[in-house]
Amino acid sequence: MTDRILPEDALPAIDAIGAADIVIGIPSYNNSRTIGHVVRAAQAGLAKYFPKFTGVIINSDGGSKDGTREAVLSASVDYSRLLMVSTPLSGVHRLSFPYHGIPGKGSAFRLVFRIAQLLGAKACAVVDSDLRSITPEWIDLLVRPVLHAGYDFVAPYYHRHKYDGTITNSIVYPLTRALYGKRIRQPIGGDFGCSSALVSRYIAREDWETDVARYGIDIWMTTVAVAEGFKVCQSFLGAKLHDAKDPGADLSAMLQQVVGSVYSLMREYESVWITRQSSEPVDLFGFPFDVGLDPIDVNIERLLTAFRRGCEDLADIWAIALRPDTLRAVRNLASSSPSTSKSFHIEDSLWAQVVFDLACSHKRKPLERGHLVRSLTPLYLARVASFVIETKEMFAAQVEDRIEQLCLRFENQKPSLVAGWCGEDSATAQEFEVSHDSAPGV
What we know:
By secondary structure, this protein is an alpha/beta fold. It has two domains: about 10-285, Spore Coat Polysaccharide Biosynthesis Protein SpsA, Chain A (Alpha-Beta Complex), CATH 3.90.550; about 300-440, no CATH class. Helix content is about 50%, strand content about 10%. The protein has 19 helices and eight strands. It has helices at about 10-15, 30-50, 70-75, 105-120, 135-150, 165-180, 195-205, 215-225, 250-270, 270-275, 300-315, 315-320, 325-335, 350-365, 370-375, 375-390, 395-410, 415-420, 425-440, and strands spanning about 20-30, 55-60, 95-100, 125, 155-160, 190-195, 230-240, 285.
């Protein structure tokens, strides 16, 4: 019988292997420069930390034209240079296949999950193909909690440059933490471990033809695991050094797909999050330590220019997306923006309400959802500009404290979201006015 997820040449390869204990997936698209290092690290990790288990590395490729798949198949490790307690029982299999479906990271993951399921893998991990900081220890940290500690989902915990991961820091982490009550620091980190039970749950879902097939996959994986009661943890992986981008660069597609997925999942799991209050820590494995990070330059003027242009061009859609008091505050911010960018600032209470208002509008206006999520881009860029200006002289620990303040604001202001979500506009407005007026100037 034909498996619609698999390419034709995958089944014979799966049959030849027969079964595997651990599957490591590496999605790719034109990553020949970096993927060889990632494959070698995965090979070394399997050989060093899981010598008695059968491991398979699967490259799920999106049609690379730069020799990515060839780089995967030619990558090799000199096991004699690894310090191992015992010799691996068998070599690590490496497979590379093009995936079917909507072009994107999620479709690549789907192929990995399906092969892991057919091989009967006890644990599956996925890692990005552009990583420069991955080490063999990453494989241990992503897989061991599943194999030996009974966890279903292992989220990554990294040290990142303060301007890397701005979508996570400004929207996804504070929002999902406030919604589902779990402090998963990198809910869209890109590198995960999961159990066979969770892999089967992912494969069984019917939403693979949505933004889940693209950039929405990471937050989808995290949310499904948390909202459906799977046992979750985090593993500290050190630095995440990859092909980072200026937050002012065109990240609009990623922003829209990630946030659109968060909002869509809010509708599905409404009964889970709507009564949940506050948040709790999530178990963390590994040994946190300070690491060096690549610098990231941010063009603040470009961010603010995009925000002011959005205020002019998106007036009609913002009138739909935002409540009157939120919209008024945003317009006042744009019209009173200082001539110098050094003092531009968005209060946490206003930013939380922008994200909440868009979530509520996304629920109520199904025909406008694409326009609503796209209209977030200039608002997000303004928030990034505000964050960069405020934290310019801060050290990493101070920035993390600042993000914690934002998360607490989202949690404290959650009644406003619930009221708006349930259509209680007057209650929402009153709640926002109180929180906005009393918010500290942070």
